[in-house]
Amino acid sequence: MQSIIKLAPRTLVPVLSRCSKHTLPDLPYDYNALEPIISGDIMKLHHQKHHATYVNNLNVAEEKYNEAKANNDLTAMIHLQPAIRFNGGGHLNHSIFWQVLSPKEGGNQPTGALAEQIKKDFGSFDKMLSQLSNASVGVQGSGWGWLGFNRQEQRLQIATCANQDPLQATT
């Protein structure tokens, strides 16, 4: 697998606020910055259309949920939870996604501490990539494949989420 896209060494800070409306985050690079791997048109579509729709629908669902809560309407509150999960997950997942992509060429493979951790936990970068690809392809329909650090186990871990489900706190 060839790619000029490098994982950016950033702290991920997408926050789902309880008090204010959610907003579409700006991309940290231009829409065409990842070409030729990902076209500017695709980036624009996913950011301005898909991600923006999750943000708008999340705000609507939370507003309705707050009204239902104020009216002590438990049935409506339960009914709105899937919309909050789906749109909140879509917003959170995409917010992370934009931050971990980088237009800077980096040789396709990590170096330093990350490379050592990958070797320790998977045997090699290629084995990790194969496991991540297999896990991601195994998600039926749409979904997400993630490589992250499990702080409890002090190791890298592959996780998948169906649809727009967000990662659980333990993953």
UniProtKB/TrEMBL annotation:
<feature type="domain" description="Manganese/iron superoxide dismutase N-terminal">
    <location>
        <begin position="21"/>
        <end position="102"/>
    </location>
</feature>
<dbReference type="GO" id="GO:0004784">
    <property type="term" value="F:superoxide dismutase activity"/>
</dbReference>
<feature type="binding site">
    <location>
        <position position="46"/>
    </location>
    <ligand>
        <name>Mn(2+)</name>
    </ligand>
</feature>
<keyword id="KW-0464">Manganese</keyword>
<dbReference type="GO" id="GO:0030145">
    <property type="term" value="F:manganese ion binding"/>
</dbReference>
<keyword id="KW-0479">Metal-binding</keyword>
<feature type="domain" description="Manganese/iron superoxide dismutase C-terminal">
    <location>
        <begin position="110"/>
        <end position="166"/>
    </location>
</feature>
<dbReference type="InterPro" id="IPR001189">
    <property type="entry name" value="Mn/Fe_SOD"/>
</dbReference>
<dbReference type="InterPro" id="IPR050265">
    <property type="entry name" value="Fe/Mn_Superoxide_Dismutase"/>
</dbReference>
<dbReference type="Pfam" id="PF02777">
    <property type="entry name" value="Sod_Fe_C"/>
</dbReference>
<comment type="similarity">
    <text>Belongs to the iron/manganese superoxide dismutase family.</text>
</comment>
<comment type="function">
    <text>Destroys superoxide anion radicals which are normally produced within the cells and which are toxic to biological systems.</text>
</comment>
<dbReference type="InterPro" id="IPR036324">
    <property type="entry name" value="Mn/Fe_SOD_N_sf"/>
</dbReference>
<dbReference type="Pfam" id="PF00081">
    <property type="entry name" value="Sod_Fe_N"/>
</dbReference>
<dbReference type="GO" id="GO:0005739">
    <property type="term" value="C:mitochondrion"/>
</dbReference>
<keyword id="KW-0560">Oxidoreductase</keyword>
<feature type="binding site">
    <location>
        <position position="94"/>
    </location>
    <ligand>
        <name>Mn(2+)</name>
    </ligand>
</feature>
<protein>
    <recommendedName>
        <fullName>Superoxide dismutase</fullName>
        <ecNumber>1.15.1.1</ecNumber>
    </recommendedName>
</protein>
<dbReference type="InterPro" id="IPR019832">
    <property type="entry name" value="Mn/Fe_SOD_C"/>
</dbReference>
<dbReference type="InterPro" id="IPR019831">
    <property type="entry name" value="Mn/Fe_SOD_N"/>
</dbReference>
<comment type="function">
    <text>Destroys radicals which are normally produced within the cells and which are toxic to biological systems.</text>
</comment>
<dbReference type="InterPro" id="IPR036314">
    <property type="entry name" value="SOD_C_sf"/>
</dbReference>
